[in-house]
Design goal:
Blueprint (H helix, E strand, L loop, with lengths): L1 E7 L5 H11 L5 E16 L7 E17 L2 E9 L5 E6 L4 E12 L3 E7 L6 E7 L1
Antiparallel strand pairs: 1-6, 2-3, 2-5, 2-6, 3-4, 4-5, 7-8
Length: about 130
């Protein structure tokens, strides 16, 4: 595994930026190893919901995990507000960086993460293929 460290500046939309990075670097399979930073807006889809819930204000990234590649991603985020209340779920478009987002990715050799529709779940699910 090789590691890649990224710093995303203020105003960057977190999810599209990570996908764009994977596309531009032709990354076939990666996982989030570490993430810290802050958001000014958050769009998080909670379990069992179809649409994202939105929050504004000073939010700290307390966790970011998941898989990603140039073919798509499945990322979960947890953020804390100024009172320490935590919300988490699926990372959606609309999570804009407030001051910084420091992300470390683990790029996995020899495998490809793709996403295909799964008739059982109704979602695009991870398919792991050897390169």
């Amino acid at each position: 595994m090789r590691t890649v460290a990224l710093r995303l500046p203020p105003g960057t939309d977190l999810r599209p930026a990570l996908l764009h990075y994977c596309e531009s670097q032709a990354i076939e399979a990666a996982c989030v190893l570490s993430a810290v930073g802050s958001l000014q807006d958050a769009a998080i889809r909670f379990a069992g919901r179809k649409n994202a819930c939105h929050a504004e204000g000073k939010l700290e990234i307390v966790s970011l995990s998941g898989t990603l590649s140039r073919h798509g991603c499945h990322l979960h985020i947890a953020v804390a507000d100024g009172r320490g209340r935590v919300s988490g779920g699926h990372l959606m478009e609309g999570c804009r960086v407030r001051t910084t987002a420091e992300i470390v990715l683990g790029v996995l050799p020899g495998v490809c993460f793709e996403r295909e529709h799964d008739a059982m779940t109704g979602h695009r699910e991870l398919q792991i293929r050897a390169l």
